[in-house]
Design brief:
25% strand, 165 residues, three-stranded antiparallel beta sheet
Length: 165
């Protein structure tokens, strides 16, 4: 009998476990495979629009004014629209070179789960994900995601919805 190698859980998966939130581990290596990762997901019955990227944004108020927006991988972010929705003059992308210092994650591994729990940044979701019962976000490691109920994630991170289109 061959033993299956046990995959070590990420800190973000442990957070979900601590909060008794059911999830499924999934692989979407967007950085390495690009649109092919979405095609693979779709072929396994997962809508690409339900797979979210986590983008860290910087407000213009002070050096600690960060927020997080989660939107489907296939969509582009509209910074002017987000600033307008939040009643701000401007919003900028956070410096990719400083992401690990800002969030504790490298580019491609940012997740609303750990960022909210550890940093307390406000989390916003693109309202176009509302029709999906299940969504996927990074598990805190590049190429590794968790698939869970949208309502569970939004509640865990005290998320709000925004019109990002």
């Amino acid at each position: 009998m061959v033993k299956k190698a046990k995959i070590k859980k990420t800190n973000d998966e442990r957070i979900l476990d601590q909060h008794h939130i059911d999830y499924q581990e999934v692989q979407f290596d967007w950085l390495a495979n690009g649109k092919n990762a979405l095609a693979e997901a779709e072929s396994s019955g997962i809508s690409p629009t339900s797979i979210l990227k986590t983008i860290v944004l910087k407000g213009n108020d002070d050096e600690h004014d960060y927020l997080v927006v989660c939107l489907p991988l296939e969509y582009e972010i509209n910074l002017k629209k987000i600033a307008n929705e939040l009643g701000r003059k401007q919003i900028h992308l956070a410096d990719n070179k400083k992401l690990i210092k800002i969030t504790g994650y490298i580019h491609g591994a940012n997740t609303p789960i750990g960022i909210k729990i550890r940093k307390g940044f406000p989390i916003y979701f693109d309202e176009r994900i509302k029709p999906f019962e299940q969504i996927s976000v990074s598990a805190g490691k590049v190429g590794r995601s968790v698939r869970l109920k949208q309502v569970d994630l939004v509640k865990l991170v005290s998320g709000k919805y925004l019109r990002i289109e």
